[in-house]
Amino acid sequence: MTLYLQAHLRHGKDFELKVNHELPLEGVTALFGRSGCGKTTLLRIIAGLERPKGAVVRFGGQHWQRGRQFLPLHKRRIGLVFQEHSLLPHLSARENLLYGYQRTPPEQRRLHPDEVTAMLGIEHLLDRRIDQLSGGQRQRFSLGRALLISPQLLLLDEPMAALDTQTKREIMPFLARMAAESGVPIVMVSHSPDEVTRLADRVVFMQNGQIQNVETLREALARPDSPLFDDAGAASVLEGTLDEAGEDNARPFGPPEARLWLTSSALAAGMNRTRISILARDVSLSLVDPQHISIQNHLPVTIERIDPPRDNRCVVACRTADGQLLLAEITARAVQQLGLATGKQVYALIKSVALLA
Ligand SMILES: Nc1ncnc2c1ncn2[C@@H]1O[C@H](COP(=O)(O)OP(=O)(O)OP(=O)(O)O)[C@@H](O)[C@H]1O
């Protein structure tokens, strides 16, 4: 499935959007870029809320806009979720959830309310009034309501922007699960690298009203100058299965040959397949598998690339035994002293407390 977008539009004197791209649509596609670069404008064009003259919007084989042809939002079968929830206050949480479902012809329904409430963990909240729900819970209902119209495409405009950091962390695993289990492609606007690395499969980098680059998340994280790295520097994302904790509260993550141990306080609730984000500066390298050391995670890895030093620090890209890319940031001096080179097998050491699930 692809989404073809060709549009040229101006907002006032200062902003011009010009795109001509075919985007693959599988899983979650993030529109990422600085404030004002045109992410929301592009999302509105996809939704049909903005109708630039001469634009072409094609979803799969279906033209949503071309020449005089224009399909309005309600005919595009799109689920929309914005920053602020748009639940109806006079209806209960359940009635809000089912609002679109009941208006969807039965032959078009692909998702069942029970499935969606389980995905979003909102079964116990169905009988509440909207004003009895927290901000994060309301957004979960907004997502559920959008999903229950069985949309062909889900458009999310910074759905977590109005939530505090803690609530964001709580809602993120539900969003990730929904993306993985619903089978509905998602296009999500975000300017948060954290959100993008946890949720997206593909990133559309935007700047000054243009699409600069479209990459898979893995490609976007593999380059040293990735716009997804913020002030904390380079980071890698590992994907794996999180198992139950043993008596010591440590939860194993990933297959035995690339096993990490996570502390229970850093766990995502109710999720098995998950992603963890690791800052490169939290990863050290050793030529041997060290004993008698407090660091719990020792992964055998193969060095794939050593980036040129910046401020006397090098990012070393390593391949784990299960084929994922792990970045370590160490001093240029250490690279030299250890004789590190491409192809060399070493151990990556990561403190459990540095692992964020
Ligand atoms: N209706 C409008 N009339 C005039 N200018 C507009 C209108 N809508 C958006 N703009 C301008 O168009 C530009 C792009 O806005 P847009 O909302 O698409 O950016 P964005 O990347 O989504 O930003 P943010 O991350 O801050 O939401 C901005 O300069 C904005 O001020």
From TrEMBL:
This is Molybdenum ABC transporter ATP-binding protein. PANTHER family: ABC TRANSPORTER I FAMILY MEMBER 10. SMART domains: AAA (SM00382). Keywords: ATP-binding, Cell inner membrane, Cell membrane, Membrane, Molybdenum, Nucleotide-binding, Translocase, Transport. GO terms for cellular component: membrane. The keyword Isomerase does not apply. Residues 1-233 form the ABC transporter domain. Residues 292-357 form the Mop domain. One of its GO terms (molecular function) is ATP hydrolysis activity. It comes from Marinobacter nauticus.
